[in-house]
């Protein structure tokens, strides 16, 4: 039996080129796996991550130094790379261009460990397939951020969102499904977030989390729960959804839905006030809850 963890975060790192609405560019090694693993580990969970990249492009061990997570990785022909051009100060509107795509992930590549949750934190369509989720579901709980199933790299390297053709086949494999409001509409055709969550649940997802710039919503087939975001500034907006989801799924292993939702919403509110992945502590989040919730 391998080493035991609360969560294994799986996904490619990305060489990000983030350009704000004023034209200022920030380059960093980012990606959902970065924001998610920092948030999970700093919240006091035994965290591992598995990523793929071309080692000539970045030092993966250095990127996750001081994250608190154990790092596992394998080489990829290309490293994922994305150029994000933001058009508004709140970073809600952006265009994305692919500058590199990672090799797909397979279950037999994952480290020989034991984990309670397989957290799939991909970036583009093709990182994972439904069969990977189905196999992971045989070994633990499955958490999927749907972004990587909807965001496609087009022939001209631009990125566009399309519905997940196999959603009704593989949603029953997923214990925790995360979308944002726009992705929920693509999947369901519904603009009402609560109704979209109910439909996704009816298709098989056991718990649905939908993020919005004002609040986070959770649904478990019985009740709709919401919690407001209270960030005092948006300088750390990048990684919002990934931080939220990692906080929620790990907190759910020790708390009910309402408590987990409040924790992850406070976590992301605090994180959004500082650029980069979450670098504070679980106690800082609890203090934030005490102060603002």
Write down the overall geometry.
globular
- Output the structural class: alpha/beta
Our estimate of the beta-strand percent is 25-35%
pLDDT under 50 segments (min length 5)?
none
Count of alpha and pi helical runs? 10
Stated plainly, the CATH topology is called UDP-N-acetylmuramoyl-L-alanine:D-glutamate ligase
Widest sheet: strand ordering: 5-4-1-8-9-12-13-14-15
Number of separate domains = 1
Brief overview:
By secondary structure, the chain is α/β, with parallel strands linked by helices. The protein is 29% helix and 29% strand.
Q: What are the defining features of this structure?
A:
293 residues, alpha/beta, 10 helices, 9-stranded mixed beta sheet, 4-stranded mixed beta sheet, 29% helix, UDP-N-acetylmuramoyl-L-alanine:D-glutamate ligase
Structural features, described:
- The protein has 293 residues and is of the alpha/beta class.
- It has one domain: Ribokinase (UDP-N-acetylmuramoyl-L-alanine:D-glutamate ligase, 3-Layer(aba) Sandwich).
- Helix content is 29%, strand content 29%.
- The chain is built from ten helices and 15 strands.
- The strands form three sheets. The chain has a nine-stranded mixed sheet with strand order 5-4-1-8-9-12-13-14-15, sandwiched between helices. A four-stranded mixed sheet has the order 3-2-6-7. Strands 10-11 form a two-stranded antiparallel ribbon.
- Strand 10 and strand 11 form a beta hairpin.
- Helix 1 packs across helix 8, helix 6 crosses helix 7 and helix 8 packs antiparallel against helix 9.
- The longest helix has 15 residues.
- The radius of gyration is 17 Å and the shape is globular.
- It starts with a strand and ends with a helix.
- The model has no long low-confidence stretch (mean pLDDT 95).
